[in-house]
Amino acid sequence: MSVDTSRWEEVDRYYDAALSISDPELLHALDRSVDAGLPEIAVAPNQGRMLSILAASMGATRILEIGTLGGYSTIWLARALPDDGKLITCELDKKHVEVARQNLIDAGLADKVTIQTGPAKDSLAALASQNTPPFDFVFIDADKESYTTYFEFALKLTRPGSLIVLDNVVRTGEVANPETTDSRVQGVRACVDRLSRETRVEATAIQTVGAKGYDGFILARIRP
Ligand code: SAH
Ligand code: DHB
Ligand code: MG
Q1: C-alpha distances in Å from residue 193, one per residue of 85, 147, 180, 203
Q2: In this structure, how many other beta carbons lie within 10 angstroms of the beta carbon of residue 84?
Q3: Ligand 1: does its nearest atom lie under 6 Å from the Cβ of 30?
Q4: Contact of 76 with 43, CB cutoff 8 Å
């Protein structure tokens, strides 16, 4: 069976226009990221809006993001917050942090967002030790090898009813290959194994195609 991937992009473009998903601030954030030489691996516009709708519909006031890049998904998530809402986003790469900082300022979201620079594990350990109020929504999107660790921190830092979303959990279907030699896919599979044994969450996985290829999300909810 052959798959015409150009059609995936065509449909993403169609809906981006038909549903007015992108706007100048978002496009500006992507332009600056490309100009700065960041990898083009941010979520697609329709995926960003999905994250925003999920966070807004559950009334999230505290959001945690792991993997900022240039702040594209950060902008989508921070827009879902009420005026007094807060988002903390973790990023290792100083250059990515600088680009994201500028993008968040230009998007008028700098007051709602704190960027934690450094290895996410350290930032998450600090948050856990500080007894920070629970997060309503967690978006896990940094190095896939560490997804299990990030998921375990997410469990510690949330409350019953919180939602944990994990990006890039399909990887062209490679996730279904137990013999995979791709360390990123191995990281996702290890996290799924951990998640499957966690009675506190109910989870599903949704495959996606589009401008970002064939991939997918896990949605995991902490049982009330
Ligand atoms: N969420 C972004 C994309 C994130 S890409 C968006 O959709 O717009 C993954 C990011 O995770 C990269 O910027 C990378 O530098 C960062 N990263 C990789 N390893 C990390 C680590 N150990 N700690 C924190 N961030 C890390
Ligand atoms: C990669 C990382 C991502 O977070 C993503 O959305 C797509 C690709 C990567 O490391 O290849
Ligand atoms: Mg991703």
Answers
A1: 33, 11, 15, 12
A2: 7
A3: no
A4: yes
The answer to whether the CB of 103 falls within 8 A of the CB of 72 is yes
Report the C-alpha gap between 31 and 27 in whole angstroms: 6
The kind and range of the H/E element at 194 are: helix 183-196
- In the block, tokens 């190095």 appear at 143
R_g (Cα) of the chain, nearest Å: 17
- Measured in degrees and rounded to the nearest 5, phi and psi for residue 117 equal -85, 135
Mapping DSSP to helix (H, G, I), strand (E, B) and coil, where does residue 37 land? coil
Q: Which residue has the tokens 């109910």?
A: 202
Q: How far apart are CA 165 and CA 51, in angstroms?
A: 8
C-alpha–C-alpha distance, residues 188 and 79, integer Å: 28
Question: Along the chain (224 residues), what's the average pLDDT of each consecutive run of 10 residues?
Answer: 83 98 98 98 98 98 99 99 98 98 98 98 98 97 98 98 98 98 98 97 98 97 97
- Residue 66's alpha-carbon distances to 5, 144, 145, 179, in angstroms, are 29, 11, 13, 27
Among all bound ligands, the one having the nearest atom to the CA of 47 is 1
Q: Alpha-carbon distance 36 to 84, whole Å?
A: 31
Cα(1) to ligand 1 centroid in Å equals 34
| Residue 190, ligand 2, Cβ within 6 A | no
The residue among 216, 67, 81 whose CA lies nearest residue 136 is 81
Report d(CA 117, CA 43) in Å as an integer. Answer: 21
CA 168–ligand 2 middle distance (angstroms): 7
* Spatial contact of 72 and 95, defined as CB atoms under 8 Å apart: no
